[in-house]
Amino acid sequence: MKKKNLLRGLTSVFAAILAISIVMTNTAMSYASMLNSALGISTGKFVHKDGAAKEEPIFYASDYGDVNHLTQENLDALLADEDAFVELEEEEGAVLLRNNNHALPLKEGERRVSLFGHTSSADPLYKNSSGGGNIDPTRVVSFYDAMKEKGFEVNETLYAAYQTPFEIKRSGFFGPAVIERPASFYTDELKATFADYSDAAIVVVGRRAGENVDISANDEEGISGLALHKDEADMLQIINDSGVFKKIILVVNSAFPIEMKHLDQYNIDAVLWIGTPGLVGFRGVADILKGEVNPSGHLVDTFATDSLSAAATQNFGNFNYVNADEVNEGCADSKIPSPFPINYVGCYMVYQEGIYVGYKYYETRYEDAILGQGNASGKAGTFASKDNWNYADEVLYPFGYGLSYTTFEQKLGKVSEENNVITAEVTVKNTGDVAGKSVVEVYVQTPYTDYDRTNRVEKSAIQLAGFGKTQLLAPGASETVTVTIDKYLIASYDAIGAKGYILDAGDYYLAIGDSAHDALNNVLAAKGATGLYDENGNAVTGDAAKTYHWTQSALDKETYSHSAVTGKEVTNLFEDADINYWIKDSVTYLTRQDWEGTFPTAQRNITATPEMIRQIDGHLYETPADAPAVSTFKQGVKNGISLVDMHGLDYDDPQWENFLDQLTLDEMAEMIDENFGQAPVASVMKPMNRNQDGPGGAAGPYFPGGSPEDGLANNKGIPGSCTTYVGQMVAASQWNKDMIIKRGDFIAEDCLFSSVTQLWSPGGDTHRSPLSGRNFEYYSEDGTLSYLLGAAQTKAMQAKGTAVAIKHFALNDQETNRNGVAIFANEQAIREIFLKAFEGAFTLGGATSTMTSYSRVGLDYIGHSSAMLRSLLRGEWGFKGANISDCAMHPYQHTIEGLVGGTDFWCIVGEKLRAPELKEYITSHNDGYLYKLLRESQHGFYYMLANSNLVNGLSSNMVFVPVTPWWQTALYIVIGVSAALTLLCGTAYVITALGTKKQKN
Amino acid sequence: MENKKRTLGFTIGFISAVIALVTGIVLWIYGSAVGDHYAVAPIILILGACIALVGLVMKLPFLSILPGAAYMTAMGLYITSQMGNISGRLSDTGFGATGTELGMLIAFCVLMLVATILALVTSFMQQSKETA
Asked: Which of B62, B75, B124 sits opposite A1 (nearest CB)?
């Protein structure tokens, strides 16, 4: 090869290496905090000053060792406890829905079983596709493993057959919702094995959905994704037709309520809903089947006969403005090139059902049907009813329902009230033959008055007010459970008359019951109603003795007119979230005054007005004329106050001003960009913080690295993902606050062991529709249950130093069009249903963070909504801390309007850093108003961190020493070497080429 | 008489440029079709291909230094633009996922890589025969 060619080639190679290394370095630097977080690398360390005492304070201790020096032994002890806990969660959260002839538990001699269903064997559904937690293959226990472990003999031929690959016909982003083998799979050879394992056919069915994906209302088979599909029906038919099985047990391995109207058709003896059992929860399922454990879970959602029958589901999915093109044309964000094929501005959803979400619809309509009022027995909204609307036809298992292997008797004892807190004592006796736990559900009916009708205040006929759970009761044993109820939770929001919460004049009923329906029947009995029936259509009389009645003499608009937390006046904040605000009389909300006339219909005819389009556009901020100059604020002052010095100080302590004076505009702006964490800030001695998802457990490994000087564990390189707990709705189904507190405590331990400061957990949204793809991340369809559970879990997590970012605040109740969908709802529904679910986590739990929703409240992206993030969250609820957006990759999430609205930092910005935009705006406009907001935002941010596990191991005697991560050094070396070689070879090539030319000449 | 100017180097360089050119155009069209409106990588690819073709046709061998670097730059920028998509799809969360299918993404990257390797190989070779 000629020298000239060689040099040219080498130049070319080194130039290519230089090019790719520059580009990739740039990319890596953009994702630096994410990379460092994943690799467990800190960009600085904190070391003690010369001569200073080597103290390593502990502010948030672990129960498993020295939190500043955690070891593998500590972790082993934690994991042993967590495995036992996850098993216990499943045992208490699984709900026995049907148990004909005491089919369950399987008896002593019934151990030879056949496991049916793709989900039973090939693909157990430990968790859904999002929501944190990862499956550690070294720890996971499958259903098959659990059954074997617990002494069952499993049909191995059938199990092996399910492991063979097969073509999954249906498509979907995360795979199909329903995966099952066709009838042809069950060959005669396979069927011949059934007889040897015929003590029980245990059939597992599952549903898959997740982030970005709802369950389809009309899928490839032309039916709801929650309906029984052909392959499933064929499988059940084959099992039933075989005639060899003594029992057929259906196990529902799905967070979503699968329709189960065909149970009799296939002679199914028992049904056990298990949701998603997490890492090792299948052990708990096996324990229940075997009878080692008595199930005590109760439903947190209504299981309807037809999954499309809920009032809310009539408006669910993809709805676009009639003039969506015009809206797109009128919104600047639509013109910004984006890698996402998403309609950010043209979609909406009308919550026409008002407050009648979940059981509040079915039960209220039932009462009105029984009492013959409000056209409740009409045709509108009939899905499973044979003729006119009938509760027993429409509902299979009511909210709060759950069976046991034993029987309990519950008696309502003393009920008292003091300082607006009701205390109810309920005595529970185990009247059966085996030990078990009993859930005490306390409901309230508030009066529906003429005042309400005039002011369009809606009332659910029954609403959960409080709950408790017994310890394990031996047969014949009793326990008195005391349930306290804050009357605030039964107050109604009156958006027209009082513009605040009211307690109506009239008759109030408190009732206990085995479900919402049972409690309502007890109330109806106390009211003297007749013609009552249960969910199976059987006539019942109700039990008035299980109710407590009181009368309020006058309408009370005062008691809850001001926030109990901040004293701020409570008033309407979301009038413009009502579509009628923008287009007069365009939508009539469901009212119990006329079920027939107002049952929701798909609201597809909304045309956005020019005013609406301007609001959707959302580019609304202009620097105020009276904005102060940036120079009026102190920056970069050397006050010597470090982050750890701020631990425990009140939010309003004057020292915060001195602390904030130390920060520069650059330092403050850089903190608004988040990539699973944020970089250290030397001037205030802030270490790198790591943030993670999610509700099912921290997504990430234990011991990702770091050093004790960073405040957390120093161990490196020990593999293993953090524990995946049972799905959050399974946790809720335990109806056990102690267990929820333990869950919070364990998740917070995981955060200590994985160096996570802020966790995007728990989930607080509402199961508005059974089709919503991420219901498994949230507690329930009931706001009060979520309020109480969220408060308990959050308090436990915060106590151990996790900055709890309950998500997705708020109105993220469907995945379809989640990026920018405009949620139209009335203020009563927003407050009583959807915000109530979050409220407890802030006001009682003390959450120092929240992850905001992608949705819009009305037309305003929630990250821009000062009504939501400032007036409500900080004003009424007294939130102190910092909120984080959902993944900030979309153009409709504006940096400037976000800061104005109350967004403190932006989640996973990737390379699209927002700090430069903010700095440029503030500087070029000399906008001291925006600067002040940024400073206030940083106040919340550092308050969150100062009161988190990040300060463990930090002391004022330390200094920050920057460390360049090894990968950055390596990349710089590659760039330097390749640049030098390119130059060298290039120069040599030019010289050689010129020499050759000269020679030729 | 003038000898035929085609050499193996010319052929490889030509194939490389055609691959880059076609990849750039298809990438642009595909991106637009699936909502991934990302033009920088296709433009750099097409630019690199044009430089390569000019170098070949005009017998300017020093230009063969540039296409490899251009294609690598395009590939780097393309991968960068797809980071959210890759992470969303691999993590099964859809967090940041776009319309580009992973298979197509890999195919584009492979094509860019092939174009790069061929461009680098040809830069070591004689791309035209000496005229007689």
From this structure: B124
pLDDT along chain A (1001 residues), means of 10: 88 96 89 75 82 90 95 94 98 98 97 97 90 86 97 98 83 69 96 98 94 90 94 97 98 96 96 97 98 98 98 97 95 75 88 98 98 97 96 98 98 98 98 98 98 98 98 98 98 98 98 98 98 98 98 98 98 98 97 98 97 96 97 97 97 98 97 92 92 92 58 40 95 98 98 95 98 96 98 98 98 95 98 98 98 98 98 98 93 96 93 88 97 98 98 91 89 96 94 82 71
Q: Is residue A146 part of a domain?
A: yes
* Nearest residue in B to A675, CA atom: B84
Number of Cβ within 10 Å of residue A531's Cβ equals 10
Same domain for A150 and A23: no
Question: Which of A2, A18, A889 is closest, CB to CB, to B84?
Answer: A889
Give the containing element (helix H, strand E) for A89: helix A72-93
Three-state SS at A62: strand
C-alpha–C-alpha distance, residues A300 and A398, integer Å: 9
Answer yes or no: do A109 and A227 share one domain. yes
Of A1, A27, A989, the CB nearest to B80: A27
Q: Is the same domain home to A61 and A120?
A: no
Instruction: Residue B112: list chain A partners with CB under 8 A.
Output: none
Does the interface ipTM go beyond 0.90?
A: yes
> Is B109 near chain A, with CB under 8 Å?
no
> What is the span of the domain harbouring residue A995?
3-29+965-1000
Terminus-to-terminus CA distance in chain A, angstroms?
22
- Verify that A149 and A10 share a domain, yes or no: no
B43 part of contact set with chain A, CB < 8 Å: no
The reply to whether A15 touches chain B by the CB within 8 Å rule is yes
Domain count for chain A: 4
Q: Are residues A553 and A405 in the same domain?
A: yes
Which residue does chain B place closest to A30, by CA atoms? B80
**Prior bond to A694 cis, omega within 30?**
yes
Three-state SS at A289: helix
**A578 and A625 co-located in one domain:** no
Do residues A947 and A975 both lie within one domain? no
Residues A783 and A687 in one domain: yes
